[in-house]
């Protein structure tokens, strides 16, 4: 029993039933599962909004799925889900509500945050959205002018983590929907090279900076924003009033925004109940909103909303985030899978997996349960991947023939984007043929007999055999529209939620990022001034000394 009164996950009868079931399944193969059930592909498919999920190539039977759903019931996933949607403070270590779903609620919804006055947050969400939309239209139309009276040509988003990955990913994903006459750049790294490269060739008179930071204390962002302000003022003759026309802020912290020198009239607000990695559909998405315009942004929010409603109301058997979450738990716990690959067959989703890394690994990279007791089961996997087909010529070898089991999601679209020239659009079939072929090869492999039948020399047979049984979910949509992107992101948000709920961890804090931040602050004066750092270990002290010597200090 945990302190919170919940029976520990691995002591639950439902968990033990799954362990027993796994033992009984033994070396079950996807070939057998398909051979024994011609209707498997029809049954193990799910349509939600514009997404179709084929999970027939998962190493599961009806019984597995039933037992996994029972585990979800035993761990009260639905109860925690309803608490989240209801504004309860389910982020226990920060005592905060988790209400990113309110960001996409319709204007007439009532969502109250648990607290003294149980305030309905929806009017504030829509008020900020209206201000954001108005500002975005002004920049897009050229009504918003820079200090010298010229219109804005480039928008530079300065932020990191959730204040960068979301807008950067979605901007890339929705490039065909963007105002192409505007240029967008994203700066995150405290490495000065990032800002240097982003500012190359830009004219301060036509550049707008969005400083995006929930806390407005993040060292990378504040350092880059300070350097960007200097670049701007140097370029515009040093008149400090120029800042007001070239800098806007997105934050929950008005005080810090003002202290930085940005007029809070140029600040767009969000709230502490929006986690950084769940924030790109809040004001943090301002760069994206300028890029695609309010109408497309609304379509994206509606896509999120569609998946929210599905997650909230669909029965367990048809609930896509629940299913994906439970499948991940199955492989982590009973196949010792350490990783999960997300492999989009879309050039426009080149940042999607990087975005998911924060969403998943910052949320579920936890080692103690919600009451602080170390867990004795696996939590979040290593999430990784890049767009196919590039990955096929790099690391898919390990997926097919390596010693590790790495479940994967293959994401593809029926239609190429409309603006492609006919000869480029024609390449789409080849792209998708690769996706389908990979799912097939991973699942069914190639037996030694099949290899031999091709006349391969006996000593090469083991090398050319593919064991198969590598599970995948294929997610297929018509096209990568703003709505479909919203649906996809919300699908993964809720999948991560389901896993955190079952694992009994707080998916909404991120204390694990703190130690490095504190130590960096302590070490920096040692690099710059040779200051003594009390208690510095021998290895780090040696590296610091070597660094200083290399820098001639
Ligand atoms: O360091 C991790 C983190 O706190 C993330 O959770 C967050 O998205 C990122 O830093 C940026 O934080 P902020 O938006 O406050 O600058």
Automatic annotation (TrEMBL):
It catalyses: alpha-D-glucose 6-phosphate = beta-D-fructose 6-phosphate. Pfam families: PGI. It is found in: Cytoplasm. GO terms for molecular function: carbohydrate derivative binding; glucose-6-phosphate isomerase activity; monosaccharide binding. Its EC number is 5.3.1.9. Its main location: cytoplasm. InterPro entries: G6P_Isomerase, G6P_Isomerase_C, Phosphoglucose_isomerase_CS, SIS_dom_sf, SIS_PGI_1, SIS_PGI_2. It comes from the Bacteria. GO terms for cellular component: cytosol. Keywords: Cytoplasm, Gluconeogenesis, Glycolysis, Isomerase. Pathway: Carbohydrate biosynthesis; gluconeogenesis; Carbohydrate degradation; glycolysis; D-glyceraldehyde 3-phosphate and glycerone phosphate from D-glucose: step 2/4. GO terms for biological process: gluconeogenesis; glucose 6-phosphate metabolic process; glycolytic process. It is an enzyme of class 5 (isomerase). The active site is at residues 362, 393, 517. The keyword Isomerase applies. HAMAP family: G6P_isomerase (MF_00473). Catalyzes the reversible isomerization of glucose-6-phosphate to fructose-6-phosphate. PANTHER family: GLUCOSE-6-PHOSPHATE ISOMERASE. Belongs to the GPI family. This is Glucose-6-phosphate isomerase. It comes from Streptomyces mimosae. The gene is pgi.
């Amino acid at each position: 029993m945990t302190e919170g009164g919940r029976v520990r996950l691995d002591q639950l009868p439902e968990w033990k039933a799954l362990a027993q079931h796994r033992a009984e399944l033994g070396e079950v193969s996807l070939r057998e599962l398909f051979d024994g059930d011609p209707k498997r592909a029809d049954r193990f498919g799910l349509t939600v909004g514009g997404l179709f999920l084929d999970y027939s190539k998962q190493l599961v039977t009806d019984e597995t799925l039933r037992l996994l759903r029972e585990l979800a019931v035993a761990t009260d996933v639905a109860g925690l889900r309803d608490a989240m949607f209801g504004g309860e403070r389910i982020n226990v270590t920060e005592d905060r509500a988790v209400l990113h779903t309110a960001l996409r609620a319709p204007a007439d919804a009532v969502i109250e945050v648990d607290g003294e006055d149980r305030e309905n947050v929806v009017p504030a969400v829509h008020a900020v959205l209206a201000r954001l939309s108005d500002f975005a239209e002004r920049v897009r139309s050229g009504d918003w002018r820079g200090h010298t009276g010229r219109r804005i040509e480039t928008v530079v988003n300065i932020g990191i983590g959730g204040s960068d990955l979301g807008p950067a990913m979605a901007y890339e994903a929705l490039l065909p929907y963007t105002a192409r006459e505007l240029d967008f750049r994203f700066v995150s790294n405290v490495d000065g090279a990032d800002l240097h490269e982003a500012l190359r060739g830009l004219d301060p008179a036509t550049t707008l900076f969005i400083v995006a930071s929930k806390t407005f204390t993040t060292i990378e962002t504040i350092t880059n924003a300070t350097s960007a302000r200097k670049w701007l003022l140097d370029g515009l003759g040093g008149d400090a009033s120029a800042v007001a026309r070239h800098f806007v802020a997105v934050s929950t912290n008005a005080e810090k925004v003002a202290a930085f020198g940005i007029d809070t009239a140029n600040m767009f607000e969000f709230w502490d109940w929006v986690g950084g990695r769940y924030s790109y559909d809040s004001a943090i998405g301002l760069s994206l909103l300028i890029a695609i315009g309010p109408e497309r942004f609304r379509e994206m929010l509606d896509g999120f909303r569609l998946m929210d409603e599905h997650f909230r109301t669909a029965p367990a058997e048809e609930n896509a985030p629940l299913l994906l979450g439970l499948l991940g738990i199955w492989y982590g716990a009973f196949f010792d899978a350490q990783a999960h690959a997300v492999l989009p067959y879309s050039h426009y989703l080149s940042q999607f997996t990087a975005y998911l890394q924060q969403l998943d690994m910052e949320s579920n990279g936890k080692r103690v349960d919600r009451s602080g007791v170390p867990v004795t089961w696996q939590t979040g996997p290593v999430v990784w991947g890049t767009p196919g087909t590039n990955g096929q010529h790099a690391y898919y070898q390990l997926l097919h023939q390596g010693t590790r089991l790495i479940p994967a999601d293959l994401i593809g679209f029926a239609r190429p984007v409309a603006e492609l020239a006919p000869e480029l659009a024609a390449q789409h079939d080849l792209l998708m043929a690769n996706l389908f072929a990979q799912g097939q090869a991973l699942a069914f492999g190639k037996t030694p007999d099949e290899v031999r039948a091709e006349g391969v020399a006996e000593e090469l047979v083991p090398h050319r055999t593919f064991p198969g049984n590598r599970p995948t979910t294929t997610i297929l949509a018509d096209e990568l529209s703003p709505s479909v992107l919203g649906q996809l992101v919300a699908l993964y948000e809720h999948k991560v939620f389901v896993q955190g709920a079952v694992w009994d961890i707080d998916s909404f804090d991120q204390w694990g990022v703190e130690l490095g931040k504190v130590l960096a602050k302590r070490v920096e004066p040692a690099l710059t001034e040779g200051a003594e750092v009390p208690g510095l270990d021998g290895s780090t002290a040696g590296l610091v000394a070597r660094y200083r010597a290399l820098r001639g200090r």
